[in-house]
Amino acid sequence: MLSHYLFFFLSAVALISAMMVLLSKKPIHSVLYLTLTFFTLAGHYILLNAQFLAVVHIIVYAGAIMVLFLFTVMLLNLNIEGEFPKSTLMKFVSAIAGGMIFLVLIGTLKSFEVTTIGNPELTQIGLVKNLGKILYSDYILPFELSSILFLSAMVGAVMLGKKDKN
Amino acid sequence: MNIDFILYKLLFAVIILMLSLVVAMYATLAERKVAGFFQDRLGPNRAGIFGLLQPVADGVKLFFKEEFMPAKADKVLYILGPCLTMLVALLSSAVIPWGDTLIIGGKEFALQMADVNIGVLYTFAVVSIGVYGVMIGGWASNNKYALMGSVRAASQMISYELAMSMSIVTIVMTSGSLSLNEIVSQQHGMNWNVFTQPIGFVVFLICAFAECNRSPFDLPECETELIGGYHTEYSSMKLGFYLFSEYINMFIASAMISTLYFGGYNFPFMNELGLSHNWISIIGTLVLMAKIFFFVFVFMWVRWTLPRFRYDQLMRFGWKGLMPWAFINMIVTGFFYMLIKRGF
Lengths: 166, 344
What we know:
By secondary structure, chain A is mainly α. Chain A contains six helices and no strands.
């Protein structure tokens, strides 16, 4: 029963903070609200009995990526309010894009059926032992390929950022 | 989920919280006494016998100082900064096993808040969000020195976090578990991880210094270049929170070092003493405390002995000095582990 209340609480916080990412005037507040959203999502993972995913979510998103965002925003000093250009063309384009996403959402929700996945307490797949076994036996090739992809992205970023000495 | 269990956990949480705060409080006094000893002077000895009331005096002074907030500061974030730093400092005490179990009235009570099967990852997560308090505080004060200090602190923490994680991963590889309780119970007696993982221990110790922003890595609050670092604009109890959380971090880092490398609550000849289970648990907790205090002393010893790094030296040491060692340690350990375990 408690997990029901927790679910609604986390969902409410997640939705409100996600809205605040868009609504807040200062970029740094947006970054912090996005971090809060990630924390509530991690809470949802724990409710689904996927502790490993929850902690990794916090380490990777809140601990690494959002810190990088925060760094960039701070160093660029984007703390002047209302800095974003809002020309008529911009408004027109964003209205069309938003409307199209809305249509896609309606299309998806139309064919949506409520499925029950059973009691998440009983599914043990989110625990680190089971997840590790599956990742390193059945899905070893995609796993290694994705790590090579990350490595190449990192090397590429270093190469681009390096000053040309010649 | 019965009522005794919840009451016990609540009581235990309060005890751990109080313990961390009291130890941190007296660590401030111990630091000044140790500094006095190293510099051949007496240290504070006016308030109470041997200056034992000095932390109380400092606390009262911080409480009654004038509260000052810069005019153009971001008010919410300015207050959030020290709060977050304090919160994160106290969070990791939840997964540290403070002792074995106590059996009272036929029921077993674990001396650990939460024995989660991802304890090690939980500490990674807490360490990685430790950056926020410092960065938010430094940015919200709207001061260039504070911003510089916070950027330095954050980049230093991120850089040393990697080598630290690598050295813990090696421990996870040898013990085959992510639960801190399991890692400790495998070091029963004198089978401490420090004997099998000396390089990992040294890397971890150095990274722990950097993560706590302690000397010789205390560049974020380097008074000679920056006026005071990320807390330049802070006064009164908010400054107190920043300074105090450094001592809590030191206590927790010492507890982690003892847990991961020095056997936690295990001590030699614990089976040969012939005492009952409860007594062994109580002695084990006291032994863990003794180990923690020793490492807190090491933190102070290093601070008053070694000079500060320069910023480029710090970064070079982190990335080009510690990282390769952590990687070599991990690869060699993995190789030998497979060799012995699988018998290739």
